[in-house]
Amino acid sequence: MLTEIRGNFSGGSEIDAGGDTFAGMVWDDLHGRYYPIPTDPESINNVGDAVTIDEQDGSQVVVAVNGTTRWKFPQRTRIATLMDRNPVTGPEPDAVGTIGAFDDNHAVLWSGCSDAIH
Q1: pLDDT averaged per 10 residues in sequence order, the chain, 118 residues
Q2: How far apart are CA 8 and CA 84, in angstroms?
């Protein structure tokens, strides 16, 4: 099921024919390749980085198409948009979302996480 499109990348999930295996996926539409990710992508950017859920602790992480975790966000963070990576324009917010408890959320702009590997 397709849930996100950004540039040449599409994100979503796939269920096998038996219906018992679920996987998040990012498709590189330009090159005809796909990459598994832990869960359905919450957001993707123009280079195929995807916000997904760390299955161990439930926090959101940015995963590159090669499977490398680029950034792990603090728990109780909800990333709404992962910004496109554009080195020409200089420093900009990398992700937009909220952080906080269910009844006490605050808007947040994350910077410096596009190229960080944690």
Answers
A1: 88 74 84 88 89 87 84 85 72 78 83 55
A2: 12
